[in-house]
Design brief:
- The chain is α/β, with parallel strands linked by helices.
- It contains 5 helices and 9 strands.
- The protein has helices at residues 16-26, 43-51, 64-76, 111-121, 135-147; strands at residues 33-37, 56-61, 82-86, 99-104, 122-132, 151-158, 161-166, 169-174, 178-184.
- The longest helix has 13 residues, at 64-76.
């Protein structure tokens, strides 16, 4: 899906190149339940729900402006498989050991609690994927998932530049690098 397909506002959107890689790493093909933490505009939730119509998608967001955009995008794409939860993760969901994949787009200074919560929610082998622009938070996530026994930890840094006009010519305007961590809950 293209960024232009989404209704956006002042809330940041996960760019389409980053979504493509992150959703691929979530491995949602046979998944039943997926949680998007810090859903923002809902681009990850919407694209996952759109591409996997049998997938139950739970979008967790606390910001009112973002919640409005998520709901508008759900309506815009006519999705019935995306639920919105207004909350600050971690939140009680009563689906422990039932979630196939979790995406962390925002953690609001509760990274360790959200990782522990994610581990409790995920099925054995369930995927956890997180995006970061702040390198200190990336390193903290990497340390925590290793420390907490997540398996198959994979790290990618994505640098995207887009062609733009500059005077009479063109140049590649760089976007912020995105640090992507993907891992799996080990079998206990």
């Amino acid at each position: 899906m293209r960024n232009r397909d989404f209704i956006t506002g002042k809330v940041p959107i996960t760019k389409e190149e980053v979504r493509a890689i992150s959703i691929n790493k979530l491995d949602l093909l046979n998944a039943k339940t997926f949680i998007d933490v810090g859903a923002g505009t809902g681009s990850i939730s919407i694209e996952a729900g759109y591409n996997y119509p049998d997938l139950r998608v739970i979008a967790i967001e606390r910001n009112d402006d973002a919640l409005d955009l998520v709901n508008k995008n759900i309506e815009n794409f006519n999705l019935t498989n995306v639920e919105v939860v207004k909350a600050y993760a971690p939140v009680e969901l009563d689906i422990y050991n039932e979630v196939d994949a979790i995406f962390l787009g925002g953690t609001g200074n509760k990274l360790e609690e959200i990782i522990d919560w994610s581990k409790d929610l995920l099925v054995p082998g369930g995927r956890l994927v997180a995006n970061f622009i702040i390198i200190d938070t990336f390193y903290e996530m990497l340390r925590l998932v290793r420390e907490k026994g997540f398996k198959n930890v994979d790290v990618t840094v994505l640098n995207v530049s887009k062609l733009e006009k500059l005077g009479p010519g063109e140049y590649f305007k760089p976007h912020n690098p995105i640090y992507i961590i993907s891992c799996e809950k080990g079998v206990e």
